[in-house]
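Working notes for the structural subgroup meeting. M.R. asked for a predicted model of this chain before we commit to crystallization trials. I am recording the input and output together here so anyone reviewing the notebook later can reproduce the run.

Input as submitted:
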Amino acid sequence: MSDTFKAWATGFWEGEGTVLITKSRMVLSVEMTQVDIQPITLFQQVWGGNVYSYPKKGSSWRAYQRWVVHGPGAAAFLIDIRPFVMRQIMLQKVDLGIAFQAQKTSTWDNRTDAYRQRQEDFRMRMKELNAIGVGR
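Returned structure, recorded in token form:
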């Protein structure tokens, strides 16, 4: 994958996407919504994940697609685009997402209160960063 492609993908995602940590399962998630399915499909082909289609609602809404990738796939995407992220708030989200995924464990350690609290701390920090980005 060329740096030119990664730079394009980064800019597209910075304008149309987000990164979050889900509350119910404490999973890293990268998402992007777009009315044009072509870039959404391209992201899925390169980084995996799923594409969901939503029908038109009323006269003022257009049909749209949403690309979603979770866990290690989401982290791989963030690692690929990180060198090209331009907006400081997005860079903070990318770094937090990468750090969150890096500290995940599938062993019994994830059953401890300390581990669950770390997960929640990451989630709350991401929630704060996403609130800062609203309307900017």
